[in-house]
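Morning!

This is the sequence you dropped in the shared folder:
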Amino acid sequence: MKGFAMLGIGKVGWIEKAKPVAGPLDAIVRPLAVAPCTSDVHTVWAGAIGERHDMILGHESVGEVVEVGALVKDFKPGDRVIVPAITPDWGAVESQAGFHQHSGGMLAGWKFSNFKDGVFAEFFHVNEADANLALLPDGIAPETAVMLPDMVVTGFHGAALAGVCPGDTVCVIGIGPVGLMSVAGANMMGASHLFAVGSRPICAERAREYGATDVINYKTGDIVQQILDKTKGQGVDRVIIAGGDVDTFAQAVEMLKPGGAIGNVNYLGEGDFIKIPRLAWGVGMGHKMVNGGLTPGGRLKMEKMAALVEVGKLDPSRLVTHRFHGLDKIEDALMLMKDKPTDLIKPVVLID
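The structure's back. Tokens below.
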């Protein structure tokens, strides 16, 4: 089979590999829709997780099951499925401790395009199919559903990490596709004043559609001061970091009230250290919590996210701004994600 791969840091291209083989608990899936991610860009061009050679990229997919192992009970060839970006080993001790994302080691629940071939191929392998696949509901189009495996679940995870409660004032830093889903998640969890930090007009428009009460443009002034001005100097209860860099944490701490929490779901592709401002952190005693966590995976989370779409409470299709057709267009879509033109939120490749 062919797949689109990271050949080395800064290098991508098409390669030929053997078609994967399903173990007794596993499935082989062919993609129906895939989407490139900023994480792919960090992995390839920043070398954020180290050197990788001939590793097929991609971790966002909706597909059709073509083969299942002998012990798979709930899926069969022909089923259309949502494939989570994170496919843990559910029997691992880390999973039993409540951190399935790190089953087998830190970040090891993230297999696709980390240490295992990803979904940008004619076929891909899914471990523990019964626990790591979800049936695609008939009423959800593949291009909409492919937002669920990473964008939607990661954005909602940011709101959960920040501990958003009804009536909280919330700031979401970064309103790309994950940040927009953080806005949607915080809004659904009951945020009152909901500030969205970004500069691109299309993202600002979507942020308001998903529930933002104010859009803060970082190009027109310091975002901390803008937040303090809008909150009468009080700051916010919760901050969700879905963009920026290692220096963004200092801004988040400065705008956060004592007793508040920061939820980070931003993939930090560069930089060695995160700096926390001493005074703004209450000289270490300000009860300003910082939580950072890899997005959840597995079947149940996908089913819950899909249910929000089924009943009309969430419309992730508004994230999709560019559509490509055919496996050979994956490279074009990835380069679009790398270059980030002003009219882009998220590209999708449909495998017709």
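Headline: The chain is about 25% helix and 25% strand.

More detail when I'm at my desk.
O.
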